[in-house]
Design goal:
The chain is of the alpha/beta class. It is built from 12 helices and 13 strands.
Length: about 350
Amino acid sequence: MTGQPYLSMVMVGRNDNYGEDFNYRLQNCLTWTIKNTEKYGIPSEIIFVNYNPITDQPSLQQVLKFPNDLKHTRVRLITVPKNIHKEFCDPAVRRKVPLFEYIAKNIGIRRATGEFILSANPDILIHPRIFEAISKQQLKKQTYYRSDRCDFSKFNLDFSLTDDQIFAQLNEHTFKFVVKGKNHIRKDQNETLGSVRFRTRIRNFKNRNMIRIEKIANYFSWPVIYDYLSLKYHTNCGGDFMLMHRSHWYDLNGHPENTYLAIHTDALFVIMAAMSGYKEVCFSDPIYHQDHERRYRHDGDIEDPDIREMFNYMNREGSKMEKTHSPIIYNDENWGCSKLKLEETVIACL
């Protein structure tokens, strides 16, 4: 690769083995991503933001493995030390956790050099047909790209198999489909992403428009959805895959950095992009997410009230943007810690 990369893929993490198997999931993600950027000849860089690393544990650079014969892909490791993390630890602004996801992602996005920048999570497997589409270098500047997600239970991935064999295994272990406006638990092996996507589109259309006939709906006791933004825009798991032209990341000053929790911050950013007039396109093929234990839980009766408040905040702010037909810009010009000089290492190069 010479000159500017076409694609920058930004991911974040630290050497705490988050979810009990982070290193394993990250290695799978990197192996798969590099395999496909090389296969499809995408001039690309993978930027991994090594955030608040633990000094008395093996570094990620020590535990990860990379091929040494890359032709199209560069891997950059940007380290954010503990003292910088401490500067953001203000409980009045955000809940204290060891990794502030969207501050870290913005640090990577601000230092990315690609024409298009993908903000992603470090445990996903992107469908090869998405890589193939990107390789044509015909992404639209006025578009933001999203994807549906398939969650699969852990099994021993073998990347030496053919893509058809790998996807047969992924399909066998998929237990949840995450589509626009709905998380759907798979009921049986015959249920497909396409069928769930089709049914959900009809449901979303009905629920999104029920508010227009609110009085009639109330008369017949039909449920009316007032928090409809997640039905109108593909906010669901936006942090796993959000792809835009680099100029638009700068127009919006990156992901909001001062939300109390990371969860639903990604949804807020999707609405910001939509309110900027960019067209939303969802790839027909999904990404696959390796299931794991989570820091935040929001499954019914044990939901964290702060998560509910973040959902409400996202809807309140999104409604404000819809009324003005313009995005709210949350960060100042120093977003992504632009003034900081951070240690960077190229750990896999051309």
